[in-house]
Amino acid sequence: TISKIQRIIMSKTKEKLFSIENSLSDSGYLISHDVKLPNDDIAQIVASRTYLSWKGLVIKSQHILISTINNPTIANIKTLYQFGFCFGKERNRVPLLRGVQFGYMIIPVILANEVSKELKNYINSPPKKRWGIMEFPVVWDAISNNINFYEETPIWNGAFYSDLRKVVLKHIF
Predict the structure, then answer these.
(1) Quick one: which of 114, 170, 105 has its CA closest to 140?
(2) 58 vs 45, which has greater pLDDT?
């Protein structure tokens, strides 16, 4: 049987998903539901948009993947990122070379009821450098209602990290 605490957490998570979806939809993102991931997990929401950023006059293909996982691991967030990049290439074909006035912003988001210290450390560490791709992993802890993401600004792709933080703070938190 499901305990009262588990029901409350599930309810908070469903409310959070609903709130995020409405916010993204209202901002013009194209929304997909229940997208199957390679490891048999599900991304409950995948939101995409392509826009011109005035910072450097570049086209950004932005993809947010949101999955609910009870006890997520670093592997779960990496799977969301990898799938998000593949999904982005399929969904938004832009006839420009990646890294030359065009790039991807992948925001893997996990809504969890328990977040390990190991995952928090991974999320709060500087992102891996990739050519023409930015990864901005986020984990929301349903129990504490805390959100974890890299809060500093890296030198690599640093001009665009304020955009990523704004998206997370506006739509996720």
Answers:
(1) 114
(2) 45
